[in-house]
Amino acid sequence: MKKSLFAIAAVTAFAGAAQAQSSVTVYGVIDMGIIGGNANTNGSTATTKTSGFGVVTGGESTSRIGFRGNEDLGGGLSAFFTIENKIDPDSSTSLSTNRQAFVGLKKNGLGAISIGSQNTPIYDAVLATDPSGVNNMAGNLVTLSKKGSQTEQAASSGVSTNGAYATRLSNTVVFKTEKFAGFGARGMILASTANSTETATGNGTQTGAGGINNTTGWGLGLDYNWDKFNVTANFQALRATSNTNTIATPAPVLFSAAGVVTGGTNVQDNGSYISAGYDFGILKAAYQYVSRKASDDTNTANYSKYTANQIGVTSYVTPTIQAFATAGMGKYVAMPATLSAAPYVPTAANLNAFQVGTNYWFSKRTNLYAIYGQTTTSNTRLTSATTPFTSYNQNNYGIGVRHTF
Questions:
Q1: What are the start-end ranges of the H helices in 150-273?
Q2: What is the fold, at CATH topology level, of the domain defined by 40-404?
Q3: Which end of the chain offers a freer environment for a tag, N or C, measured as fewer CB atoms within 10 Å?
C-alpha cells in the first residue's frame, strides 16, 4: 500500500513538473525569388563586367527556422531560450549556419539577461530602425549586402566584402532593460580566452607558439521613444589577439558581418550606429549613421574604415501595399595592399547608393516583394599615390515571395 501511494505521488509530481515546462514555439521564414544583378570594375587597363540571374533564396529576408520557449518561474521571473538556424531552400543541404542559440532569465519590471550566440547591440538597433527592413539586396549602405550569382566586387570596393557592423557573436552575455520613461538600454560582453605557456614569440616575421589567444569585447546601446519620435545610439568594441599569428600577416580580419563567429585575427574592431526617426502618419522617415574601423591590434597604421550616412522612408500606400526607399553616401578606406610598419594609406573611396522597393501583403504572414538597388564606388587607389584610380558599380533587382510562420 505504501509503495502504491509513493508511486502515485511520484507520478503526480512528474506530471506537475511536465506541465511547468517551457511553452515552445516553432517559427521561421521561407523567402524565394527571381533575382539578378550586374557588377562592373573600371580599372586603368580594362573594364570587367559580370552579371547573374536566377532563382535565389533570401532576397528580402534570410530563410530560417527557429525554436523559442518561455517558462513562468513565478514572482515575475521567467526563463527563455532561442535556437535559430539559417536554411537554404535552393540547396540540397537545407540546414545551414547557426544564427542564434541562447538561454536566459527575465524579471518583470527590470529586464533580461541571456547567454550564448546572439545579436550585437548595433544589429538589434538596425533591425528596429532600418526603413528597408534589413533586406539582403544591394543599394543600402547600412546593411551592405547583395543577392545573386554575379561575381562580387573586389575587396577594395568596401561594399560587398566589408560589413558595416558585426551582426551576431558567440560567447556573449547580453543585458536588456525594460522601458523606463521611454528609455531602454542594452549591453553585451564578449569573452573567449585560452592562454597557455608561451614558447615562442610572434615578432612580425615569424609565428609565435603558445601564449595569448583571446577574443574579448563589449557593446552598449541606448534607445529613446517619445510619441512618434525615436532615437538610438550604439557602440561596440571587439578585440582578437593571438600570439600564434605574426603581427602584420595575415592581415587583420574583421569580426564577421554575417553569421555567428568568435572573432577576427589580431584586430581591434570598433563600430557605432546612430539613428533617428519620426512617424508622420502617411510615412515614416529615418536618418542613419554607421561607422566601423578595424585596426591591426599591434600596428594601428594598418586599418580599414567604413562610414556612411543614409536617409530613408517607408509608407503604406494602401492597407496592403507598402513602399520604401533609401539613399546614402559614405567613405571607405581599404586595408593597405602591402602591410608594413609605415604602409601607404589608401585613398578614402566615395560611396553612393540608393534602393527602392515595395511589398504587397496578401496577409500578415505572406507578401510579394520587388526591390531594386544600386551602389557606386569611386576614387579607389590601394598601392601608391601614382597608381590610377579604380571605380566599381553594382546593381541588384528581383521579385519574390516571403512567408513567415
A1: none
A2: Porin (2.40.160)
A3: N
